[in-house]
Amino acid sequence: MYKFICLFVFIPFTGLAQHYKLSGSLNGNQKPVSYATVQVQNVADTSKKQNTFSNNDGIFIFENLPAGDYRLKVTIVGFKIYNQQIKLHIDLQLPEITLAQNPNELNEVVVMAKRPTITRKIDRIDFNVENTILSSSSAWEIVKRAPGVQSGGDQLAVRGSRSIIVTINDKKVTLSGDELKAFLESTAGNDIKSVEVITNPPASYEASGNAVINIKMKANHTPGYKGSIGAGYTQGIYAKGNMNTSQYYKTGKLAIFGSYNIGRGIYYNEIKEVTNYAGQQQTWMDILRRKNYRDAEHTYRLNFDYAIDSLNTISAGTDGYIAKNNHALYSVPTTIYQSGAFQSAFDTQNTRRTPNTNVNINLGYDHRFSVTEKLSLAADYTNYQNTIGQDVRTSYQVVDPHNSRFVTDTRQHIRLFSAQADYSKDSKVISVQVGAKFSRVQADNFLDFRRDTNSGLVIDPALSNTFLYRESVSAGYISVNKDWGTWSFKAGLRGEYTDINSSSISPVQINRQGYFNLFPTVFLQHKVSPDNQLGLSYGKRITRPPYNFLNPSRSYFSPNSYLMGDANLKPALTDQYSLLYTYKSRYNAELYFINEQHPTIQLPFQDNATNTLIQNVTNIPGSRYYGIDLSTNLQSADWWSLDINPGAAILISSFPLSGGGFIRRNVFSINGTADNQLTLNKKAGFTANVSFNFNTAGLQGPATVSGMSSLNIGAKKKLFSDLGEVSLSVNDIYRGQKMKVTSDYADQHNYFTYYGDTQNFRISFKYNLGNAGLKGKEQKQKTDEQKRL
């Protein structure tokens, strides 16, 4: 506020001083040139000169320059020195300056600064996939292959925890579960620069989630046109395909980006459940085969950025996901054995309609007070509508043959709004970030449950429900960082107040909560010697339950299987400590400890009285993780690069029994990835990739999770003078991505296996339009609290 008061007080006197502003931007090799030294020298008095540096966007600014003639000089390693004469008598914004490469210096820099595919930083791992064979696959496949990420049952985990947030350019995507997977599968990898696995997010990030998986989209700052068209075909158990296009155009002040993808196909997964009811000496076995028909899935983005002047930029955009024709068929044959001998069987057919739409609208404004000082304002609105209609018919055989039927209609409408302001200033003494944010969630859920009777379909009020959920979060943060000598320090504090108000008709539940939490973060890094570096970090996080987990309605899949949420779920609080050692900027070792209180899990629970298997959403007392992560990049030859990321962890979980007492589970888990990037023929643009990943064990509360592994190969060939490319990949070659979850304690004796059609091959083609040398436009960031949909 003081800055603005001073601005208005002194405006009337600025004309007397005759001082002006000079700004411009630097471009080289078709991308912004950052941290170049820019100097202006007065021609009449050469002793009067000022220096500054270009920022990440290549922008430089000089303020309060007296009128006169100046010599502008730009220097940076890898480019020739640039000189220009300037006459300054008004505020002047120079046309974009293109720096010429210095071949001798540039060749040396390329050799010395060759970056590995994986870069390890104090709080994150950066997995660069730009121009690799992985870029021809979907965002889902890329994220699954990122170091430290485990996938199983179509869910993602980091360091054994599923309390994670998926973001695009640091903003949460608006979907979760099956919708999140579908969205990422329909997002083309060609638009992705890298994936960041952020194990300890700093204070500027929302406090939700134990870890963040951030998808960084390609950025562009160069005027011109660039476009592409592409198509892909994937064959697993069933076929699926997609077509996509992206278009980018930038003039001097206006940048427009748009992308569109349409996909269709059959997505299959299979769950085999075995439940032993010891009291009845019965074993129930069923196989749930789920065929999801995605007849026309549309994913789109449209973004506008307009530079009012060198200091002010406004942006607007929309993106969304439309799948109005999605439907599915679930087949569930069940066989019952008594003391090992066949007793009876029944078969359930579940016909489903699953249309849903998701629309996001965002507005933004950036103001630069100077190269080192910036204010950003943003507002976002999301409208998400999801409908699930199912017709469940069951045919009972052998014992008491008869048929039964019920029909459910579930409608979910979620509206999210958020507004935030972020201010940052860098100085020679210290760098500061402060910000504030407000978000509001309105979620309406309606369930109609009808049973088939002699009188037709009749509504069952006990199983029908209306669930209304309201949540608002008010947050503020401050973050400071300081570098001195061989030390780097960063610390932050974030405060969030959460207000919740929800109501359910059947069962009758009213939940009102209000709580405030503080979330400190600390990072300390020390360069012990040119080859050795140590890092220490601590962070506190919160994981609020997904909105659908808070709905206490029963969601039936068959007469003897349903999912049940809990409106009174608690948020989980997590403390995370880590110690990082880096040798020669290539070899990394990180020790970590994670203590998670009241995590939310989805746990299989067998009701022995009714022979029903319930997917019960509940809090457990806590989980702890002790582990080590290792990583390195080996450049064995000019044509062969190998990234290796092994790790090991001890996972401990405690769980209360309904009859009293606790169960304590612990497993020792080993995980790792090995990713080979091969350049088979550089001149012909022929590259290949071979990767292997594995994880030996896991926990879901008292349930144990089996190990999984995957072997994948791929190849990519440039065509038509590098304007086109064709890619082929084969994934999960030996079907190692099957998982088994076992609950064997007290009176719980069940397990299920899951397979998600991960064994497949994919062929894709892409053709570039316009100036293919331009990098893709940066995607507008999404809102910061939407993962819980």
From TrEMBL:
It comes from the Bacteria. SUPFAM superfamilies: Cna protein B-type domain, Porins. Transmembrane segments: none annotated. GO terms for cellular component: cell outer membrane. It is found in: Cell outer membrane. The keyword Signal does not apply. It holds the Pfam family OMP_b-brl_3. Residues 372-767 form the Outer membrane protein beta-barrel domain. InterPro entries: Beta-barrel_TonB_sf (IPR036942), OMP_b-brl_3 (IPR041700). Keywords: Cell outer membrane, Membrane, Receptor. Its main location: membrane. This is Outer membrane receptor protein involved in Fe transport.
